[in-house]
Amino acid sequence: MVIAIDGKWIWDSWYAKDGDTYHGFFLQASTSLGDPDLRHFNVSQGHATSKDLVNWTHLGTMFGPQKNGPAWDDSTTWTGSVLQGPDGLWHLFYTGTTLAEKSMYQRIGHATSSDLHSWVRVGDGLCLDLTGPNADTYEKDHMIGHWHDRAMRDPWVMKDSDSDGWLMYFTARAPGIPEANAGGAVGFATSPDLYSWTLRPPVFTGGMGQLEVPQVFEHAGRWYCLFCTAGSQWSAHYRATNPQSPVTGNHYLMADHPRGPWRMAPGPFLDGAEPCRRYAARIVNGPDGLVILGFADGGKDKFGGYVMDPEPVVAGEDGLLQVVPAAKTVD
Questions:
Q1: Residue 58 β-bridge partners
Q2: For residue 309, what is the DSSP state?
Q3: What is the model's pTM?
Q4: What per-residue confidence (pLDDT) applies to 328?
Q5: Of 8, 81, 269, 306, which is the most buried if we count CB atoms within 10 A?
Q6: Smallest Cα–Cα separation from 308: which of 249, 223, 235?
């Protein structure tokens, strides 16, 4: 195991590089809860550093829910991303929920740091919600009985390759789709300065009930959007067009441009198993090329709760990705 802490479950993680040092950020909760399903609502964010993505130095908790009275993110602070602005300041974009809504409505928050560990919310932290002219392109209300939450989470923020602005991708759902597993969407927003954001229509809809933890990156002239999902959330169309039995794990979209159009990668599911082996993965440019990092799942009864050893990822001439399993790994 790569990122592991005695007495804590670790799950979703995200990474930033500062010079020759990788910074890993991750969700964490105490194993004293007993039931791993309870971790989601007893969460904070941890921080560790590494030179090689294998050996990590833990720096402790770096962020968590607001505790000073009612707030939009006083219940949970979930998965996000970290990047550096043009002035050298670091930016954390994260998922927040509030106790007042029983954590059912997700929104996106923003905090900044000069050292990648001590974070200060920008204002009250709220960065983006499903409001404004394009809100109707999303399932903006909790459709009780149709899905278990109002999805707006897992922000991935990156530089716009076509301008001086910034792009944000996030987990969402599209409205008016009768099949619950056909409504998963990758949401989209833009900003000129990392502070003021405009909600745009989703860049992709369909295939899965959820496309969680999106990560957009370029490799060898092609654009990829990694995501994770459960086998039980494959749409009828994807089940019909993919010859595999449904698995849980990580797959990806492909495009020629970061704004799309995006398409589901054909062929085998990238990195899946049933029960799930690795979830909420990220593809990171390591010292020796691309590697995949994600947490050991195994299901509720055998939940791993640590980030697994990185495994190499290669792209074929057709651009399709493949994970090269480490020999004889013990998870």
A1: 48
A2: P
A3: 0.97
A4: 53
A5: 81
A6: 249
